[in-house]
Amino acid sequence: MKKLFLSAFAAITCITASAQKKNYMVTAVAFYNFENLFDTEDDPKNWGDDEFLPTGPYRYTEEIYQQKLHNLATVLKQLGTEITPDGPAIIGTAEIENGRVLQDLTQQPLIKDRNYKYIHFDSRDSRGIDVAMLYSPKYFQVLEARGLNVDISESGEKGGRTRDILYVRGILAGDTVNVFVNHWPSRRGGEAASAPLRALAASVAKRVIDSLTMRNPDTRVILMGDLNDDPVDASVVKVLGAKGDKEDVRKNGLYNPFTSFYKNGIGTLGYDDRWNLFDQIIISGTFLKAGDDRWRYYKAEVFNREFLKNKFGQWKGYPHRSFDGNNWINGYSDHFPTLIYLVKAAS
Description:
It contains 6 helices and 19 strands. With about 350 residues, it is α+β, with helices and mostly antiparallel strands. The chain has one domain (about 1-345): Endonuclease/exonuclease/phosphatase (Deoxyribonuclease I, Chain A, 4-Layer Sandwich). Strand 9 (about 175-185), helix 3 and strand 10 (about 220-225) form a beta-alpha-beta unit. Helix 1 packs across helix 2 and helix 3 (about 190-215) runs parallel beside helix 4. It is globular.
């Protein structure tokens, strides 16, 4: 495969069996859990930020905050650029405190020239962390954005609050897409005991997806996030109905390209010295069935470069996180980013 570059998109030249050549534009869509990206100012309405203050247990100073921003920008600077020089057109994020941290991040010198914009709504999460979406206005135009409430009290979680799902409809370089950014309830209290909460979150997204596809069978869906479940777990397989084999995916179904990664022992975070792959990007079957004139699925990636990994000790090879206990260790995140690449014929 030979790589050429057209405009700011990448173009790849594929040689078919008949020796005919076609040029395809390539764009990337990514997800990255930023691992507790808080600012250093106390928000009286958010007790969840109390740990991330200069006087808190993490001794979270302005110097640490600025270094955290720099480290994340270092990752975003490199994310997907081996194929798409401008990086991802869309980046879903999790564990951010507010809009200010996104504004500060997008102004980091390493990525400022990309002119990333962001979409964020405050949700009712008990820890005060939200999901958000960064996007390049050069390639993505927002048509609609709103939060989808996930009311986990329906599952008997007394007083429990969790993140909204961010829904964004927009135009990705000519094609209308529907993006869902998720951070489903954690496994606190045990995987089995907390599973109904993640199933509930999955059902919120699935209801909206079903409504969209019922109105328009050609609807294009990208569901991404830290699902706190693996690609083979019930919330993903049974509730969403996401399948890991392209041949099993109907046009209005969902395809999970990260199922094969997980089955091959590749993960995005470590727990109890084993890999999980919670960070997934799932797409509608319309990305598999599309013609050359529309964006269609090309490939997926877990962005697990060596600089993002621990070099020594028990957690060697796992993500180099920001803190070890309460001590800042100058890492990036406890999750690896994930990406998918989409292609369509170059005009």
